[in-house]
Design brief:
The structure is a homohexamer of 295-residue chains. Chain A is an alpha/beta fold. Chain A is built from ten helices and 14 strands. Chain A has a domain of 194 residues: 3-Layer(aba) Sandwich (Carbamate kinase), CATH 3.40.1160. Chains A, B, C, D, E, F: Its EC number is 2.7.2.8.
Chain lengths: 295, 295, 295, 295, 295, 295
């Protein structure tokens, strides 16, 4: 009797695999750019499940490209060194010493930890930053008012995706630290969400996925249950004007808009604090976050 | 509340995918030779699930190679034509007219139906017989006693796997009708189980799987619950001597022995009348049939 | 003296090879689609010579692609099974049972015999049908009048020539059974002449050759000596209107027109009942049948 | 008059290029592993000249692979954080926090600076650590005495050079941070000189070059002019026994011995504080440091 | 009536092509080294037919490699310049001026004429000498007696067949002038028959064919009808000892022996003064000259 | 002390290499067509230095293509044979015998000597003429006045650069004798400067360099110090009209104009009688001759 039950249990599992088959077919050989940040990294269990998702993508023929952030770890290290933060218009003024810390945390501490986690799963990851192969050329942000000096804060000038393409062709999973390099070869502090959007655009990726700590875009930020499952450019514009999309969500929707405008088929903003958020989004029809579309 | 429940349901499914990940890893890029016959074909629902299994293998990076039989359909067509069967030592005497029917049923009716079913699933199959590219060179079986003339009954002389390898390299799923060709270019009636074992050996496949209508090899053929999960060559020899392995099971165990002896990593005899038998066998540690090993 | 005579004999033969050299040059690396049917197959000697021609093409750097019919053998098998034929407007109504016979005769009996004959000549053939690799997608023919149900009679909807191209690239000679597949994966009875024309067009072949049982197109069908060596589209149109081109010749001239319109350089309708008809047509300036040109 | 003088000056320069031609020929397509550490990095002018040397190698068809150290920068950062050093038998005890600093300095600060410097020269570098692509698998060093716990200090267990080979094949200059990864995916502190020797061996490099702050191996460490231009294994053994080779020079000679024993053609220990040390060593017959040979 | 006769004539020609088919099969993709010299070149009609043979080989998938001599044209040019010949032991003493003439006649006059003739046939030839790509490294022949100075007469030291292989791979017909190059880069006068044998050996050619002005090796040189159709090494040794193989035939049999000993399948000595000698030899079973075999 | 001085000497040499690095970068993978003629060949020392330059180019990743002339050597050989020259409008009437000498000197004597010199430097050269691979198709020059018969004097009709491209791809240095071939396969006497310009255009080379015996184009031919370092098409036109560019300089400037008009980046006319003229021109900013630009 027990054997029979076990077989039935197995058949149920087989049925789940078969349910996923149409998605495997749709995404075979496609590239997904996945951005995630500090809130997920803080939870070992969630991190592990996310790495499992990424590894599974690779094994079913999808090419994941990871872009990571690192806010909390950077703040922690700066605090440990008693480096104080100055802000101009909400942007952290980044002097030479701060930039060094930012780069060390992003390009080494966080980047290599993700790489090692993926390699532990028997996939093969390579961690790079925007300096490697001149991947992310950046320029400094300048105010007209010379008193407002943001230091080494900058923005993406050009993505040079050749290295990513070669790593994908050689079956590695690229893991990208969002540090840019300017014309003099110096490091530039850039927004990781922007990097993800630009890289998805440069790769003409199939999907761009932002993992955040909310369930997607909320019609009313105060009401967690007000998630909107799909938004077009016009609707986003209104939500921004109405102050419903603010703060850290802004560069994400901008990244989605840039990506969609450059041929990325689908862009998603998801809650990364759920178990296996990528599988949930990809291998179900409903989706679990907000999808941005042109119209 | 309902949404939450739905998410939990989805997470359970994601967990099933993740459970399968270690098997995806182990079998990535490997070749599986799968033999199945008439009893499965008789059931449209089972056929469909089997084709799903085969398609899934392809999409998770495994190369399935299908060898099919066709006993019941052959018998039906022979009956329809009032062609009577003669047997010598249990082997059907195959005259020219019978051979023509055998070939038409195997190489067209059954073969192309499987091909079309796989193509319907958006994988890409190509059906071939042992004549194509001289895949299966055969010789006639001859008794010393000239009165015992089996006609066009023969056995595999040589497998020429180049065409299969090219089809796999071009991402097609080869579907093979077990019709041999002799030195004069004529069709030869050969045992499909033998063909499967020889092809697995010639390809140095990772797995050879026989789908039958029993749960594997039974220690006591009369007791369906007496399945043995693993047998080595020595144990098989004894079961044969003791008359526990007989009839249609004999060429299967011989195919397994040949395959294992030629470097095939694992050989299985399974019940194909269960839903998704291949997924059940492959993506679980326990397995559901009998595995043949050297020692 | 005798030796001298022998040498002179050999020199004459060498001169024949040298005469063929300009044609070898012209056709090197080109693709020829050759369609032939039942009347040639009925004659073992002619069949053998035709296979020799095809093999020779392959060895002098030309890529032959064979499309075969099978009318007489189909009729024979249907008769053997006492399946009666119904016709609507000259088209055989094809029910499920008839289609099964058609497919078995075309995709197995005839197809594999041609394959084996070529392989006997040490060239390497692979037999496929329109189901393999979804080569010939077909749709059913429908009359507005629901009483006129042709069953599984259809027409080519789309040729997917990738499998043929791969087989050619791998140095195989593709032998194609004209069985189409519809959207539900079922077999469809289609006209072999049409298939040949469509495949020649899809491959942008150098030549399309129809082997028939007459000397080409006759200005006066009653007068066998009235062969026209070349016809343009306009002239064909008139011959059809005047009832000079009728019956089985119609799909052949339509195939030629379609092929020429899609970039096939030369299309020929020849008498296949002559020894070595292909060599005669190809390796002489005069040609032996009718060539169809645009204008 | 002046023009003539200028031409003569130019001809002298052309002669220098021609003098280098035999070396270009000898080393065309070969791989050089170059290790350098903190003393060179401290001097901007020397760093620049070294990067020029590396870039020149690439442009004359040689494949440089860089392994760097980072002692002084690590010490500086640890001091900045008030992390105190404990030593056991001369090895720095590396706890979790220290390892984090070591990794951040090596894999980000130093590694990416070298990468950016090379890219500034219009060559294309990619910075990786031993974690990327599981390049450097390491194991912890353990004393029998449990009281002597070195923490995360380890040694190279296995070099997996595939990623380096792919980067070279794609025309990138690999820059390697000597951080190992153990079986649990954690970072391990390993000796950079050892890493360089092991990588040279794994790549079967043509040359392994250690850039130090002395003129090579000194027969008498107290006498800077006592450089020995060539030493064999036996002579090295004696110098070690006599206490003439000590401290940081020990892992370098061990690296050379390992490399030579594994097929590296030439190994050198040079003074990196001279201008263009690599060009001086490579493109002259005399060489400027100490070369280690088997016998 | 006439048309019928014409068809019969055409069918006879087709039969000749089909007769050649087994030879096409045997030699497909194989390399033939063909040496011919001055006696053929003197006859425009024979030259043309030979070039046709070579072109035909290329078009039926055989790779011809031509080595030519040039005795008569060299003598003519030397006479035109009043350069007198000195001989030591039957070898022409080759001073600097004579060598210049030899090289100019071989590497330009004769070589480029053959090249242009082949190109006129729409095949693609490239003429090279032993200097190109260091194809034929040679050393001078030296007598112990210093008075016997042969000047620039030498022998093959090493064949470097890479350039020939690349030209074949790029579908060119290599035409080789037998001028060697010594260690100082100077031209060396070498025997063309020897060059042909060595090149056949270095290429592991299928066939080596010497075209001469006799019908092969004669058992009795005085009796033109005494041709021997096959000889083994032992028989050749005896014919040499008995003075039956002498003069210019010696380096040819030595070339055959060297070629056979190094894996060349068949070597032939033929009369090149017959029409289409290569086709006659290759595409008939009997052959027309003498074949040299090991035993 | 001496050692120190030596090191300083070495560092100076290293600096020269580093000075050349920007040029290495600019020209990496580019093609240079270099034409030189008899005046350089007359001087063994200059020849050697030029070959060194060419070899160096190859080793620093530049693809040199050599076109040579041969005037003096041709004249010498014609004189040796007492063949008198006739001129019409300054063009040497080329009868059959003269053409044979021209071809022998160009395609053998000069061409193979250059080839051997390069091979002596361990680069790999292959010498070809316009006949090989139908590289230079030519047509005869015809005057309307039939009395003015130039014989085999012709001009370039078409360059077929495929053979050059294949030799470059296989890492050979092509050395080209300027002999054309007409439609009947006969040799045609063409201007070497014109050939060089046309080949540079057909290859879309980076540079075309004419090595002459003057310092470039002189504003006043009588004043050797009046070299103009750069001229545009308009200025050249005026200099021609003013009779300042005459004689052998004319086809060179025409070659430059043709090359520039067809996409060649830079064209130079240099004095080849200076040591290492190519290195001097390429690896300095000033240049040493005259550069022709569009405007």
């Amino acid at each position: 009797m027990k054997g029979v039950k076990k077989i039935e249990e197995l058949i149920k599992k087989a049925n789940v695999l078969i349910e996923a088959l149409p998605y495997f077919k749709d995404f075979f050989g496609k590239t997904f750019v996945i951005k995630y940040g500090g809130s997920i990294m803080a939870n070992a269990e969630l991190k592990k499940k996310l790495i499992e998702d990424i590894t599974l993508l690779k094994y079913v023929g999808i090419n994941p490209v990871i872009v990571h952030g690192g806010g909390p770890a950077i703040n922690q290290t700066l605090a440990r060194l008693n480096i104080k933060a100055n802000f101009i218009d909400g942007l952290r003024v980044t002097d030479q010493e701060t930039m060094e810390i930012v780069e060390m945390v992003l390009s080494a501490k966080i980047n290599k930890e993700i790489v090692a986690s993926i390699n532990q799963m028997e996939a093969r990851a390579v961690g790079i930053s925007g300096k490697d192969g001149n991947l992310i050329k950046a320029r400094l942000k300048k105010y007209d008012d010379p008193a407002k000096d943001l230091g080494l804060v900058g923005e993406v000038k050009e993505i040079n995706p050749e290295l990513i393409k070669k790593l994908i062709a050689d079956d590695y999973i690229p893991v990208i630290a969002p540090v840019g390099v300017n014309e003099t070869g110096d490091s530039v502090n850039i927004n990781a969400d922007d990097v993800a959007g630009q890289i998805a655009a440069a790769l003409a990726a199939e999907k761009l996925i932002y993992l955040t700590d909310v369930n997607g875009i909320l019609a009313d930020p105060a009401d967690k249950s007000s998630r909107v499952s799909q938004l077009n450019f016009q609707e986003i514009k209104q939500l921004i004007e109405n102050g419903k999309i603010v703060g850290g969500m802004l560069p994400k929707v901008e990244g989605c808009i840039r990506a969609v405008s450059n041929g990325v088929a689908r862009t998603h903003i998801l809650n990364g604090l759920i178990s296996h958020p990528i599988l949930l989004e990809i291998f179900t029809d409903q989706g679990i976050g907000t999808m941005i579309v042109q119209e």
